[in-house]
Design a protein that fits this description.
This protein has 90 residues and is α+β, with helices and mostly antiparallel strands. The protein has one domain. Helix content is 42%, strand content 17%. It has 4 helices and 3 strands. It has a 3-stranded antiparallel β-sheet with strand order 2-1-3. Helix 2 runs antiparallel to helix 3.
């Protein structure tokens, strides 16, 4: 059995959702430059994770900047961040 290739790994990522978190310093950047926190197989699971973290941070009386960072996090389709490798047939 062959080891997974980079192309197969990339294809596995395409089917999922990524929790993307903006920089803590609040500097504006493109979402592709944000931190990839975790991957999920469904958008609802990704959104639930962000919501859960927000509730935990508020309950722990975490710093405002960290709470705002979580509030500004987004769930993005993986293929938006990791463009699949395309092959051109000749």
């Amino acid at each position: 059995m062959r080891a997974p290739t980079m192309q197969l790994t990339a294809m596995a990522l395409i089917a999922g959702w990524l929790w993307m978190q903006p920089p803590l310093d609040g500097s504006p950047r493109f979402i592709k430059q944000w931190e990839h926190v975790r991957s999920y197989d469904a958008a609802r699971r990704c959104e639930a994770a962000i919501s859960s973290r927000y509730k935990r941070l508020v309950g722990e009386d975490a710093p405002i900047a960290e709470i705002e960072q979580t509030l500004n996090s987004r769930c993005i389709p993986a293929d938006y961040i990791y463009t699949p490798p395309y092959r051109v047939s000749r």
